[in-house]
Specification:
Helix content: 40-55%
Strand order of the largest sheet: 2-1-4-3
Strand content: 5-15%
Shape: globular
Length: 242
């Protein structure tokens, strides 16, 4: 889901702390809960290149009391219904293997354990999603960039193994994602790759906003890539591609 109020590294932890309190009030301490943050929330929890996200996706392993706890925190802090949700499970970036490869993040109120996803698996998920108008591709470059800065670079074969672990040996990675990862490793300058991809994502978002204004209701998940490709072909300097 998306909301107008962005989540940051700081307020994300505040919300999770409140969630732990509310869940404990409702459910006690005998049956703990576990949440695995993925996507933008996992990026915020582990890295510094993203300032915010508008999506809090997670795998939620808890009793039904967690649903009420999420609602209570939302009401208390002015967040919309479903501010923390598992909607991503309907997308092609989901894998039930994520439970096995998650890593510990923090515990709140001694009852709520929060986990995230390790770097190579985050990259694998972003590659499978590969949305050119979101942060998927820039997140890939950002993770590679930050790991290299910290002296713990991620090798391409490690990412390949992560993709196979989550999605199988015959995983169908989108073409845009394949090009992004290949170009990033070929160039070796992950910082430049990150900045270039972020610019392209912003342009893609503008293209889709303009299209939706011109043709209300026509935009959908099946035609986004085609619309973006056609718009880029019409840019100055690309006329010969038409």
């Amino acid at each position: 889901m998306s909301i107008d109020k962005p989540f940051t590294k700081e307020n994300l932890n505040t919300y999770l702390k409140e969630l732990g309190k509310e869940f404990r009030k409702l459910n006690g301490t005998k049956i703990p809960a576990e949440i695995i943050l993925i996507g933008g929330a996992a990026i915020l929890a582990n890295y510094g290149f993203r300032e915010a996200t508008y999506d809090i996706d997670a795998i939620i392993l808890a009793s039904s009391a967690m649903t009420y706890a999420i609602h209570r925190v939302g009401d208390k802090l002015g967040l919309p219904n479903g501010w923390l949700n598992a909607d991503f499970k309907k997308t092609n970036s989901f894998s039930d293997k994520l439970l096995e490869v998650s890593v510990y993040y923090k515990t709140f109120s001694n009852v709520l354990t929060v986990r995230t996803v390790a770097a190579e698996y985050l990259i694998a998920m972003k590659l499978m999603s590969g949305r050119q108008y979101k942060n998927d591709l820039s997140d890939i470059a950002g993770i590679l960039w930050e790991h290299e800065k910290n002296g713990i670079p991620i090798a391409k074969d490690v990412i390949d193994k992560a993709i196979a672990t989550l999605y199988g040996d015959n995983a169908k990675v989108p073409a845009a994602s394949q090009k992004t990862i290949a170009d990033a490793f070929s160039n070796g300058d992950f910082e430049s790759a990150y900045n270039a991809i972020r610019e392209n994502e912003a342009q893609s978002k503008d293209i889709l906003v303009d299209f939706d204004k011109a043709y209300p209701g026509e935009l959908n998940g099946e035609n986004i890539e085609k619309i973006l490709e056609q718009a880029r072909r019409k840019r100055p300097g690309n006329e010969d591609m038409n």
